[in-house]
Amino acid sequence: MDATTRRRLGKVLVFAASLIPLALVGADALRGRLGATPIETILNRFGFWTLTFVMLALVPTPLQSLFGWKWLAPYRRMVGLFAFFYGFLHLSTYVGVDQFFDWKAIAADVVKRKFITIGMLAFALLVPLALTSTDGSVRRLGLMS
User: Fold this and answer.
1) Nearest to 77 by CA among 58, 90, 91, 50
2) pLDDT above 80 (res 81)
3) Cα separation, 25 vs 42, whole angstroms
4) Does residue 109 belong to any structural domain of this protein?
5) For 98-142, what is each residue's pLDDT tens digit?
6) Using CA of residue 71, residue 63, residue 57, residue 135, what is the dihedral sign?
7) Global pTM value
8) Residue 141: inside a domain, yes or no?
9) Which of 28, 130, 58, 46 is nearest to 95 (CA)?
C-alpha cells in the first residue's frame, strides 16, 4: 500500500471514528438512556467531546517536535473541524433545546455563569479556525503550496 492510499484510508478511519460519539448519543437517546436530565447529559457529552477533539488536534505538533512523528499531521485539520462540529452541537443544544432561543435568558446566563462565558469565548475562537481551514483559505494564508 503506497503512502497516498494509507493517508486516504487513515482519513476515512479518523472521520468514522470521530462520528462515534454522536452515534452513541443518538443510540442512547433512542433507547431512553440519557438519565433523568437528558438535555444536561447531551450538553455534557457534546462539551466533553469538544474539549477532547480540541486536545487531540493540538497533540500532533508536540509529538512531531519531540519524536519526529509526522504521520499524525494530515489528520490534524479534520480533528480540529470535529472539535468545531461538537462545539457547534453543544452550543446549538444549549441555545435551541435548553433555552428555546430565549436570548435574554442566554445573555443573563453568560453574565452570571462563568463557565458559559468561557465556553462562548472558546467557541468564538473556534469559528475563525474552522472558517480558515478549507484548502482555499489555507492557500490564501500562504500555509499550503
Assistant:
1) 58
2) yes
3) 7
4) yes
5) 999 999 999 999 999 999 999 999 999 999 999 999 888 888 887
6) negative
7) 0.93
8) no
9) 46
Domain presence at residue 144:
no
Quick one: 15 exposed, middle or buried, by C-beta within 10 A (0-12, 13-18, 19+)?
Answer: middle
**Total Cβ atoms within 10 A of residue 20:** 10
Strands (E), 16-126: none
C-alpha cell at 17: 471514528
CB 120 within 8 Å of CB 110? yes
Q: How many CB atoms lie within 10 A of CB 69?
A: 13
Going by C-alpha positions, the residue among 69, 74, 76 that lies closest to residue 53 is: 76
Place of cell 435548553: 98
Q: What is the DSSP letter of 59?
A: S
Quote the cell numbers at residue 125: 475562537
Domain hosting residue 71, numbered range: 3-136
